[in-house]
Structures are given as structure tokens and as C-alpha cells.
From TrEMBL:
GO MF entry, a single one: nicotinate phosphoribosyltransferase activity
Domain Nicotinate phosphoribosyltransferase N-terminal: 9-128
Protein name from the UniProt record: Nicotinate phosphoribosyltransferase
Biological process per Gene Ontology, one example term: NAD+ biosynthetic process via the salvage pathway
Keyword Disulfide bond in record: no
Residues in coiled coil: none
Superkingdom of origin organism: Bacteria
Amino acid sequence: MTPIITSLLDTDLYKFTMWQAILHRHPQNEAEYTFNCRNTTAYPLAELVSDVNEQLDHLCSLRFTAPEQAYLRGLRFMRADFIDYLRIFSFQREFIHAYADGEHLRIDVKGPQVHVMGFEIFVLSIVNELYFRRSDQEAALAEGRKRLAGKIELLHEFSREMPRRHPFEFFDFGVRRRFSRAWQREVVEVLRDQAQPYFRGTSNVQLAMELDIVPIGTMAHEYLQTYQALGVRLRDFQRAALEDWVQEYRGDLGIALTDVIGMDAFLADFDLYFAKLFDGLRHDSGDPVVWGEKALAHYAKLRLDAHTKRLVFSDGLNLPSALSLYRHFGDRVTLGFGIGTNLTNDMGLRTLNIVMKLTSCNGQTVAKLSDSPGKTLCDDHTFLAYLAQVFKVAAPPVPTA
């Protein structure tokens, strides 16, 4: 079978930035990650288990090449000792297990966090590409190219609008749910060549290196969730995570993710100290306009000039929704838009809503209570209720049999 992953750089930048921070500060962590599909599929994903295992075997044979190490070393926020660690790193097959459970595909990861946290994006890319290989490739690619041309035309139309104070900028965040590796590359090449000055980079580190564009990314939920299990008071876990990030990156990578416990609980911890140290905030759940207005009100309350900050939106966006948010906020704050599935898997096919989330660390359940309750992935309802109580937010309902 043709390998889907051929480079360990074929993943999101924030996997490396979180990986480095955890290696430096909590290298002893043990972690568990769990794969989940949130929607109905055209055929049972369990049918893919043999192919998934073959792809995982290949993934675990890969190493970072010398040119890849050199590229990462050239990013000013990557430390020499972390690159030296990557030089000898390879995924260990014993830490990941894919198997069929009835019609469901189960993928469990368990081991030292610095050895297993990198599996996530590769697993999601593998499952997606295997799943869509069964579709009519010629028809899907024809439709994808047609829709991509429509996006370019939409940007041309947008260019005739009256400019706002801050520019419109968007990024490719589509590694994990892409139609295929080859299609993501084609999309990014087209955007690089035809969507200037609006297209500003990609989260895919391999494409950033090979196509000479900017790699984009800071942190994801797993980074903050990890701190729920590190011995600090649960109420203080967000502050502890943000503080370690500041100490690790000292001004670089200054976009904080806000929805592990919801925006209100995040802002309660995001005081003047953090608001000055971080360049901005990233939205990933809940109503984006409500979220953005809360962010701007918070900066105003702290007497900080919002024009010096950035709001990044990344929750299920397409180009029209990103432009709509830009028209709403573009005169008030610098903006960025991370678009994923609607760039790299807009083929006229029903997409997979698959995730692979950190579910425990050091034997302790971890969870998020985002502003979109459907994104919760945690079976420990006692912990969810406790987490909600500590942060004074609504707990998700307990499923009934």
C-alpha cells in the first residue's frame, strides 16, 4: 500500500511547539490519547483497521531527516536541545493500538507524553485519506478544483471592497481532515500563487518548508489540559500553563487558546499580566461574534489598545464566514483566520468529524468544557462536574442509557 505519511514534518506546527514545552518542563508525564468519530460515516470505519495498522507500521519507521532538522533549527523559537532530541526520535509502535470494535474503529495511544503526543495529526490524516480513497477520485478532484477556483474568484471580488483598518489574512489549518496529502499540497500551492496578499501561511510544517511559506501555529487544547494533572490547584491550571508558555517562548508564539473551560472562565484568568504578554487569542468554539466582542471588551476593561492585539478564528470556518467576521471586526483589531476542512476537503463529499484527544495524564482524567458542548470528549462525568463546579460553569448533561 502507498504510504500516506512520508515525512515527520507532515503535521501541524503546534505539535512541535507544545512538544518542546512539555519536553523542557514535564518530560516525565505519562499520557493517554483516544480516537473518536463524531458523525455517521458512509461505511464502517472498522473496515479500515488493517490498512490503518499498515500505515502506522510505516509511520513508526520514519525519522527526521537532516534537512528537516535544519529547517526546524532555523525557526527562532525552536531550541537546539529539542532538535537534538528529534534527531534520535522515532515513534514506538508499542504505544499505539488500532483495532475494530464492532463497526467502530478504535485507536488508543498510551505512553510517555513526549513519545506519544505527536501521533494525533498523523492518525487523523491517515484515517481521512484511507476513508476517501474509496470515493470517486476523479470526480472528487474535479469538484475540489472547481470549488477552489470559486474561492479565488471570491477573493478577487472581495479585493474591490473598501479596505478596513486591518488587513484580511487567512491560513491553511487543514492537515488533520484533508482529502489527501497530495490535494492539500495542490490547494496550498494554488493559494500561495493566486490568493495574495490574503493567504499568509499553513500549519503544515512540511509544506511550509518545501513551498517557502510561513508555518503557523502556537498551542492546542492538549497543552492546557495537561496542566489539569500536574499537581497545581485545578483552579490554577490555566494560569500555570500560560505562565510556562511565556517562560518557554519569551515573546514568541503569543496567541493563547481560550476555550478549554470556555471564554468566561479563561478571561477570569487572563489578567493584565497575561494580556500584555500574549499577542492575542484564538477562538475554537461557540459563537465567534460573541467571543470576539468579549475579547475586545476585556482588552478595553484592561485599558489595552486592541489594535495592538490579534484575534484568530479557527472553528469550522469557510471563506465566506471568515470574510463576514472580518467585516465585523476588521476596523477594531488585527485578525487572522485558520481554515481547515473547507480548504483541504471541500470536494462535495461528506467529511469525517474525527478527533484524537488527550483523555488522561499521569493517571488523572483531563477534559475540556468548551463553548460548544458537543466537543467534550470525556467519559468521567464526576470529573466533568467537578471541573464545572470549580470554574463556575455549566456541566454537560450526563448521557442517559
